[in-house]
Amino acid sequence: MNTPPEFALSRRTLLKLGAGSASVLVAPSAMADVPGIGAPARAPVTTEVAFKVNGRVRALKLDTRVTLLDALREHLHLTGTKKGCDHGQCGACTVIVDGRRINACLSLAVMHEGAEITTIEGLGSPDDLHPMQAAFVKHDGYQCGYCTPGQICSAVAVLKEIKQGIPSHVTADLTGRSEASAEEIRERMSGNLCRCGAYSNIIEAIEDVGGQRA
């Protein structure tokens, strides 16, 4: 059966009709808050925040959406702290805030007003290495080195957690003091990934420092 000429549609005409009808379905009011289409985009909100970084008080005026990681790297130029996944999954951005390790990429800078923050630059210097930095060198606890600042900051905090009696998922006695065993260290360091696979050397370095401080 042949279609009458007045009802025949080309593919191009059909696509044009479809696009036209689709645009009609979107109410103009629904586009009012879309930047560049409706109302003009609102200017970013900025605020002042001050914290002590590696023993020095630093004051910044930041967009409230700036992460602690970007504040450290882009505004204070402390680039030892690395941006890896930017989703809190790799641990490369680990820093110590008020004695506890955190993923700096998951925390807003404005949340840390008055906090004491320690980055890898604040742990030691080439002429005066922190014991954990020296242990990583001694045990060859790195290869490419990208994850190393986060690994070291996390390791320093791990030994402090163990000393304070904070249990992990593998701690057998929750009322007693856990030891800096390889099992404890592996569990506590599981959030710090090393794509080069230097895990065994990292564990040895942390055990070494843990034994020295026991």
UniProtKB/TrEMBL annotation:
Its main location: periplasm. GO terms for cellular component: periplasmic space. Pfam families: Fer2, Fer2_2. SUPFAM superfamilies: 2Fe-2S ferredoxin-like, CO dehydrogenase ISP C-domain like. CDD domains: fer2. It is an enzyme of class 1 (oxidoreductase). Transmembrane segments: none annotated. It comes from Stenotrophomonas lacuserhaii. Heterotrimer composed of PaoA, PaoB and PaoC. Its EC number is 1.2.99.6. GO terms for molecular function: 2 iron, 2 sulfur cluster binding; carboxylate reductase activity; metal ion binding. The keyword Plastid does not apply. It is found in: Periplasm. It catalyses: an aldehyde + A + H2O = a carboxylate + AH2 + H(+). This is Aldehyde oxidoreductase iron-sulfur-binding subunit PaoA. Residues 47-123 form the 2Fe-2S ferredoxin-type domain. Oxidizes aldehydes to the corresponding carboxylic acids with a preference for aromatic aldehydes. It might play a role in the detoxification of aldehydes to avoid cell damage. Keywords: 2Fe-2S, Iron, Iron-sulfur, Metal-binding, Oxidoreductase, Periplasm, Signal. Residues 1-32 form the signal peptide. The gene is paoA. PROSITE patterns: 2FE2S_FER_1, 2FE2S_FER_2, TAT.
